[in-house]
Amino acid sequence: MDIYEFPPIRILISAAYWLVTRLSELLEPLAGTGSAAAAVILLTIAVRIVLIPVGRSQVRAGIIRQRLAPQLAELQRRHKKNPELLQRKTMELYAAEKSSPFAGCLPVLAQTPLLMAVYGLFIRQTIDGHANELLTHTFLGIPLDAGLIGQIAAGTADWGSAAVFVAIMVLIAIVAQASRRLLMPTTPAERPEGAPDLSRMMRVLSFMPFITAAVAAFVPLAAALYLLTTTTWTLGERIILRRVLGGSPGAGEAVAVAV
What is the pTM assigned to this prediction? Predict the structure, then answer.
């Protein structure tokens, strides 16, 4: 079964196609042949602006985890021989802060539909039974539906297109390293016995920007531009929100993007 024929996803693709096409037409006098690429970037920024409240909740969750660390350690000391009571007290502590140990994972999930839509827009030959006009657009002379690995496999890659993809991947990796240095906690918080063990998940999330750099080589160029845009936005958003909300460096939030 073609996942893009699933009704909710088909509707999402159709809506994204309409938006990107209209934006591309508006931007063409300024961006020329790169108007579709500019439209993808602007759409990404627009969605991230809408998701700022979600990002705020993630940063707030990190600040709360940091603030609760001493109380969680005390709960562990008191109730380490009673895991069920310890887990209940831990959840009550988070509930009093109107938070959850799982808070902060939503931004990754919230962005997944957009990435799926951008990817789908540039791999499908037809949208709603009509020819996909976006496949005729380019960025720096590279078709937006082309991927680095696909070009290499087909023998159509050249130094120019390879340089563009490598530049995007390097920029994503630089942003990822900045994210880890500026936003990740310097020491892991101690997990109370019986509380959900999220350390492994947080470690995976912290490496997702690096994974994103590798993914950018496999997806269409349009999707790679989306990944670079959203990764860079995430870093800037987290730095600003943490200052606004009063969090200290490494306030326990996992910096991640939806891939």
Answer: 0.76
